Amino acid sequence: MNFNTLILRAEEEAEAIAASPGTIGWIFTFAMAIGAGFLIFDMVRRIRKVRYRDEIQQEISEEQAAIEEAAELEKQRKKQN
Fold it and tell me: By residue range, what is the domain housing residue 29?
């Protein structure tokens, strides 16, 4: 074995070791994926809640507008009689 062969083998081993995340890397990646899943789930839940609130508020305002319109029509009908 000569010096160049030893250097090449050492570089190949170093590249193989550096390319592997190891057990701690896999655990960290898995934990990050779980955390991202929880954040996405929470975000969807909060967006859904806001959307439902807007829909309910719109329904209430439409009902109030219909009640006001009915009251106004009733006043107009009484004036005509």
Answer: 22-80
Q: Is residue 40 part of a domain?
A: yes
Which phi and psi (to 5°) does residue 62 adopt?
-65, -40
72-to-59, 63, 64, 77 alpha-carbon distances in Å: 20, 14, 12, 9
- Amino acid 18: pLDDT: 57
Calculate what percentage of the chain has a pLDDT beyond 70. Answer: 75
pTM to 2 decimal places: 0.53
Task: Give the pLDDT of residue 6.
Answer: 62
Decide if 61 is inside a domain.
yes
In whole angstroms, give the CA distance from residue 52 to residue 44: 12
- Cα-Cα-Cα-Cα dihedral of 47, 50, 54, 57, to 10°? 160
